[in-house]
Amino acid sequence: MKSIEELKAIKAKVQAELNTRDAVGDADTRIVVGMATCGIAAGARPVLNAFLEEVKNRHLSGVKVTQTGCLGMCRLEPMVEVYVPGKDKVTYIKITPDAVKKIIAEHIVNGNVVSEYVIRNNN
Amino acid sequence: MRELSLNILDIAENSISAGASLIDISLILRDKRLSVNIRDNGRGMSREFLKTVTDPFTTSRTTRKVGVGIPFFKMAAEMTGGSFDIESTVGEGTLTSAVFITDSVDFIPLGDIGETVGTLIMHAPLISFSLKIDVNGKIYEFDTMEIKDVLGEDVPIDNPEVIDFIKNTINENFYNINGGSIL
Fold first, then answer.
1. What's the ipTM?
2. Interface test with B, best of A38, A40, A71 (most B CBs within 10 A)
3. Residue A121 has what pLDDT?
4. Contact between chains at B168 and A2 (C-beta distance less than 8 A)
5. Is B165–A52 a contact, with Cβ atoms under 8 angstroms apart?
6. Separation of alpha carbons B135 and B156, rounded Å
7. Which CATH number is correct for B4-177, 3.40.50, 3.80.10, 3.30.565, 3.30.200?
């Protein structure tokens, strides 16, 4: 059973990480997942949580995973928008938890947009 | 929706949009009857609007935050032979509830309720969420206020490590009170 002790240990660990990060002073990269009925029905919740998992496992400080409502193209959900400071916004469509791993590794970590999931004119 | 917990997420997202500061979710299982209740203290809905929320085709564009989410939830309950109800008072909040008959072939599995609550907290970390699961009298209660008491001011509740803890603790406790299985 998970306990308060375990939560306290997490708190101490996170506090230490936050202190290090304040010293570095990174700007935030934002990953925004559409979480309206259309997104949820298409699988946005596991996608959001896959992003969270990757951010946690890779200790990506300076990356914030957030949610929004309907992004307007329900048939292309789950949709994800990535905002890297100083770069154009990138909109990804039909994202799966496997695609999340790729986006984190190639786009967020290495700075290369994953073109196979980027929205196009003919989508 | 492939999981009932996704319907619950969708309904609770309406509560967030309605400006709620408190959102309570309860799951009460008595033999083959599962009651799901989502209560918020958001801005509520007028009597006229309330009449139309279960109909996807009369929902107007300006009130899009409701959309097809409520009709989906209602349908999921009624398919099993259960029922659906929604009560709302302007300025006070909304209670959305449904009863599911769990041995119906049309019962959609509950799925990952921990992930639903974690997702809601990530979306709206300032809102107080509570979850009560009652399986034939065995009760587990979760409240973000208790988590925030432990975390204090320095560590936000939407930190990935904390959300991961919350998801796991909810699912483990549910698993334990439900005799080592999930719904």
1. 0.89
2. A40
3. 82
4. yes
5. no
6. 31
7. 3.30.565
